[in-house]
Amino acid sequence: MTQRQERFGSQLATLMEYTLQYTRVPTVPRIIMMHHAIEVPAEWSSIATLMAFTDQMEADLGLTADQSYLLRLVIEEIATNIVKYGYCDQGCGLIQLQCGYDAGTLRIAIRDHGTPFDPREHPDPDISTDVVDERQVGGLGLYFVREFADQISYHHDEVSGWNELIVIKGQ
């Protein structure tokens, strides 16, 4: 091997070492993006189906205790209200539930074609008394959903008739 070839080989080795050392892609934390969806009839028996769906989501997504609590609260409270009040004049309709988990944030979307109702506008219940019998019935579940969520949005689409409530909870 000539002196020129040795020098070239040495330079090439140095260049390759430099390239490997400074061009490695840094390890990026893996971001988990998962989405679950279910559609059920808006009837009382579907609440149990939605709760079983919730059990599966909790197992799959590894939610924090706060996220799990809010997920169950939203499904129990909002789905129950849809069944009880949403379709009272229209017969049985549907409830669609979509849950997504991305970068530690839980996003719950619940949709129906029932009577439009924005839970953000419902007045807070009177909780000034400790005597349960003196409190007016209703509104406490919606209050807890609003208080526990990081963000809530509601939209009623006049054209399609869909109501959509989105509830977000971070870590």
TrEMBL record:
Write down the Pfam families for this protein, in alphabetical order.
HATPase_c_2 (PF13581)
Official protein name in the record: Cyclic nucleotide-binding protein
Keyword tags = Kinase, Serine/threonine-protein kinase, Transferase
Fetch the Gene3D superfamilies from UniProt.
Histidine kinase-like ATPase, C-terminal domain (3.30.565.10)
Superkingdom per UniProt: Bacteria
InterPro entries documented for this protein: Anti-sigma-factor_SerPK, HATPase_C_sf, HATPase_dom
Single GO MF descriptor: protein serine/threonine kinase activity
Keyword Transferase annotated: yes
User: Where does the record place the Histidine kinase/HSP90-like ATPase domain?
Assistant: 41-158
Recorded hits in CDD domains, A to Z, give: HATPase_RsbW-like (cd16936)
Source species:
Oscillochloris trichoides DG-6
